[in-house]
């Protein structure tokens, strides 16, 4: 599956305009040059699927791209990829770098590795808890994951909720439970597309 990916790295070399300022200027305000760190082991075997929107800051237009990019820069968080409602894919962090998308996290049993950022690639789908996902997003996500699998031996696909839920809170790894991508994300449909299976 061929996929077009727009490079939009979260670093101070990125001069695109975000809400009247350059993205680079936003990142400089964090006293950083980029919103990622080095991987200690350089191994990736997991993909984490999230959702993100600007509903809290821009409720009238929650899918506004500049507002979503501003959220990453303002809060010093990141993800490797962002897939908008039309299925357009933007790469925000190089895959060989550690994006800051999981926070305190632990893989489901029996794996139970902690610090999932270290060995994962994060993908943000532009959505809200009750919006569901578009066909274009599913198509692009499946194509993107197939593309990722050409470079990494991916063994696990998990949602943010699977690694940063009540178990992570109970273990003291984090203080809040993450709900994404939520019950409206159709895992069966995603796997059917990714594995080129008939969609029932």
Number of domains: 1
Q: What's the CATH topology name?
A: Lysozyme-like
Q: Which shape, going by the Cα principal axes?
A: globular
Reported for the largest beta sheet, the result is: 6 strands, mixed
Query: What is the CATH-assigned architecture?
Result: 3-Layer(aba) Sandwich
Instruction: Tell me the series of helices and strands, N- to C-terminal.
Output: EEEHEEHEEEEHEHHH
Strand content: 15-25%
Structural class of the helices, strands and pairings? alpha/beta
CATH structural class: Alpha Beta
Structure description:
With 200 residues, this protein is α/β, with parallel strands linked by helices. It has one domain (5-194): Peptidoglycan recognition protein-like (Lysozyme-like), CATH 3.40.80.10. It has six helices and ten strands. The chain has helices at 23-28, 65-75, 135-149, 160-163, 166-170, 187-194; strands spanning 5-7, 17-18, 21-22, 36-38, 46-52, 81-83, 89-91, 97-99, 120-126, 156-159. Helix 3 (135-149) crosses helix 6 (187-194). The model has no long low-confidence stretch (mean pLDDT 95).
């Amino acid at each position: 599956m061929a996929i077009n990916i727009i490079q939009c790295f979260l670093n101070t070399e990125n001069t695109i305009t975000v809400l009247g300022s350059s993205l680079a200027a936003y990142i400089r305000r964090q006293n950083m040059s980029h919103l990622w760190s080095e991987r200690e082991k350089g191994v990736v075997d997991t993909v984490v699927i999230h959702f993100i929107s600007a509903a809290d800051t821009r409720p009238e237009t929650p899918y506004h791209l500049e507002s979503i990019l501003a959220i990453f820069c303002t809060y010093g968080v990141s993800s490797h990829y962002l897939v908008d409602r039309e299925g357009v894919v933007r790469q925000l962090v190089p895959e060989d770098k550690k994006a800051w998308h999981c926070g305190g996290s632990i893989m489901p049993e029996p794996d139970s590795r902690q610090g999932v950022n270290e060995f994962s690639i994060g993908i943000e789908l532009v959505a809200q808890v009750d919006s569901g996902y578009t066909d274009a997003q599913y198509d692009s996500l499946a194509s993107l994951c197939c593309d990722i699998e050409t470079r990494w031996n991916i063994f696990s696909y998990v949602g943010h909720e699977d690694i940063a839920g009540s178990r992570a809170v109970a273990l003291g790894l984090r203080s809040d439970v993450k709900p994404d991508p939520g019950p409206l994300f159709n895992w069966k449909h995603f796997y059917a597309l990714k594995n080129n299976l008939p969609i029932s």
